[in-house]
Each structure stands twice: as C-alpha cells, then as structure tokens.
Amino acid sequence: MKRSDFRFFHRLRVRWAEIDMQKIVFNGHYLTYLDTAVTAYWSRVALPYESAFHLLDGELYVKKATLEYHASALMDDDLSIGMKCSKLGKSSMVFEAGIFRGDKLLISGELIYVFANPKTQTSKPIPDVLRHILLIYEAGESVVDVKTGSWSDLQSLASPLRQRVFVQEQEIDPELEWDEADATAFHAVIVNKLGQPVATGRLLQPQPKVAQIGRMAVEKALRGGSLGSQVVKALLAHAQQRGDQEVILHAQCSAENFYKRLGFTSHGDVFQDAGIDHIEMRMRLV
Question: Is the pTM for the entire model greater than 0.70?
C-alpha cells in the first residue's frame, strides 16, 4: 500500500491525549482516526451525512474493522489518512485505509460497512445513486454540478441553503438576509448527485464594469473543501463574460484567507454588517 493508491486524504495532527505510556499513539486511537477520515470522505463526495442518508432511506453500520500495524505514530506527527471505497457488494461496501507519515505507511486498515434500515438494522440494497457517486468519485470524476442563472431559476435551491446558513446558523435577521437584489442578481448553486444544494452565491453589478459577490454560503458539514471556490469561480467567469473589470465583496473576517487564496486583496478597515465583522476585498479582472 502506498500514497498513490488513494485519491482522498484527511490530515490530522497527533495530540497529547492520544499518546500512551510507551510514548506512541495508543493502538485503539487508529480506529478513531479512520472513522474521522470516513466522515471527511462523505463530505468530499458532497454528501452531508445526516440529510443525505435520510434521503437515501438508510444508514451505514460497521460490520468489520481490521488494522495492521507497521510502525508507530508519535506526538505531533502530521498524519495523512488515505481512504478509498474499493468494493461494492449488494448491501455492503469495503473501504481500504492507509495512515501515512509523509510517504511512510504506519497503519493499513479495512472497514466493511453494511447499508441497512436504521429502524431494524437489517441490510438492504445500496441505492443505485449512492453506488454511482462512489464509483465516479473513485474514477476521478466530479460529484457535483454547478447551476447558474436567475433567481427565478434557482430560488428553490438557493433559498433553503441560505436560510440554514445565515438565518439559523449565524442568527442573521431574516429581514437583512432577503432583499430585492436577488431578483436582478446572477446566481450560482452547486448541487450534489442527490440534487441537494450544497453551496451558493450571487453576483450583482452595483456600477458599470464592477461586479459584487455576495450571499456566499456552503453547507456546514461540507466546508473546507472546494465547493466555495467553485461558486466563486463560476461567478467570476460570468463577470468576465459580461465585461466587468473589477470584482468586490464584503467578506466575513473568518473567510478573509479563503478569498485571499482565490486572488482577492483586502482594503480598508474592518466593519460590521448584521453584527458580524467584515472586510472589503477586491480583485481586478483586466
């Protein structure tokens, strides 16, 4: 087993609480590492576990978990946990795992899950759509679709996601969240292969040749991947197509570094909007 066997990796740093009297990671913690990586895997395939598996009408239960120890992880090691779905049966799926420090394989493992009725915990066939998602992801294909268009086209997708993120999670007053600008804005929504909206944003044109990105929202369980950047790129592509020369946005300060990685620069002082610290950011398109 080597790193190149995996498309997906989850990184974590060994913590003090995970070290035993031998000054190495206690053997049982490796199963926790794998479970953490599997959770991140579902995020990478754009499935918010709770709502997605509710739609799939089933849950995953561990049937068997095996580990093989090759070398020990130490305090402060930066570990990469490779995870891949290597086999799909009628109701079961096999995940192979490798825990690496750099290129060195420390632990190899295998997890066997069964798709089952959550009320009776009796197995049932893996839904075709879930099978499809796993197969295309491991084949290197995209597991999401980007939809763009008007508010009338995308309101049914964007509105529930914005309600969850801004109104419910961030406790923004609904009267501040919904405005007349939606009707004239260009919108982008990313949906997963179950048709669930998982990320959204909009593009305004407050003045000629100037675009403004706003209402950026990503499903909470799926943050930290590429969904937000895919929305921004779709909006930037539209701004370029219509001839805009500059893009501005008011970023929540917690997202400032995210936008910097996409090429935006910060301008001015921090200000509050809806009770949350923001910073203006800009990008030249020409």
Answer: yes
